[in-house]
Amino acid sequence: MIEIEVQNETHQSQERLRFAAVPRIGEGIRLREPDGFWASYDVVDLWYQKAEFGDVWIPYLHVRLTPAPAAAEPGPVEIPAQAPAQAQVYGIKEVYSFTG
């Protein structure tokens, strides 16, 4: 397992996570959101820094929340035109509906 420092641009946070392989730039990874749900993130940047001890290089990831596809975004809702409320006649006077 490889321990990687993940810097999350969306939530302005960082944490160390363990990976079986180092993700590449442009790949997507799944991370748990602060609310407990899983979300997709894009790897924006990957770099290595030399550790303070020995000849070890530590990988760092910079991630950003994957934008939702255009098909998933709600579009404008068209409300069909409704016919005007018809007045109801009761006896001699007309009574109009209060709801329409």
Structural topology:
Elements: E1 2-8, E2 13-19, E3 28-32, E4 38-50, E5 57-65, E6 88-90, E7 93-95
Parallel strand pairs: 1-5
Antiparallel strand pairs: 1-2, 3-4, 4-5, 6-7
Helix content: under 10%
What is the CA-CA span between the terminal residues? 66 Å
Give average pLDDT, whole number: 81
The secondary structure category is: mainly beta
Largest sheet composition: 5 strands, mixed
Give unreliable regions as ranges. none
Q: How much of the polypeptide forms β-strand, as a percent range? A: over 45%
> What is the strand arrangement across the widest sheet?
2-1-5-4-3
Rg, Cα atoms, Å: 28 Å
Count of DSSP helices?
0
Number of strands: 7
Principal-axes geometry comes out as elongated
Helix-strand sequence:
EEEEEEE
Structure characterization notes:
The protein has 100 residues and is mostly beta strands. It is built from no helices and 7 strands. The strands form 2 sheets. Strands 2-1-5-4-3 form a 5-stranded mixed sheet, with no helix packed on it. A two-stranded antiparallel sheet has the order 6-7. A hairpin with a 4-residue loop joins strand 1 and strand 2. It starts with a strand and ends in a 5-residue tail after the last strand.
